[in-house]
């Protein structure tokens, strides 16, 4: 399983609308195609954080899904509410936070990640 955090800006009053858009999309085939096992959306003021747990690394799965009609539809519907955190954003990969430390309970392994997000 892979965990990813997508970071962006959100219209603070749009929580319900954004949740509705994702709920409708999560009822389609798209989560299964991408391998989504869990999704949580968070907001702190105008900061949007999207926790995504996928079967395979999310970067590749999300990039592959970009052309899927449902992905395009969701992206268009979110556009009024979600905007890039950085003006240099070019793709979903640019919105993914870099994990530099992870703790797992005893009996599970903790991981460090290199600059490309690979376990080291």
TrEMBL record:
InterPro entries: Dimeric_a/b-barrel (IPR011008), Polyketide_synth_cyclase (IPR006765), Polyketide_synth_cyclase_sf (IPR038474). Pfam families: Cyclase_polyket. SUPFAM superfamilies: Dimeric alpha+beta barrel (SSF54909). Gene3D superfamilies: Dimeric alpha+beta barrel. This is TcmI family type II polyketide cyclase. It comes from Micromonospora fulviviridis.
């Amino acid at each position: 399983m892979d965990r990813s955090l997508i970071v962006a800006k959100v219209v603070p009053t749009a929580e319900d609308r954004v949740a509705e858009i994702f709920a409708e999309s999560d009822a389609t085939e798209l989560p299964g195609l991408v391998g989504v096992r869990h999704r949580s959306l968070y907001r702190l003021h105008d900061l949007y954080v999207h926790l995504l747990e996928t079967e395979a690394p999310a970067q590749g799965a999300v990039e592959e899904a970009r052309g899927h009609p449902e992905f395009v539809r969701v992206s268009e519907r979110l556009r009024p509410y979600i905007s890039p955190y950085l003006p240099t954003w070019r793709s979903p990969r640019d919105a993914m936070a870099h994990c530099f430390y992870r703790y797992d309970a005893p009996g599970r392994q903790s991981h460090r990640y290199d600059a490309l997000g690979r376990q080291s």
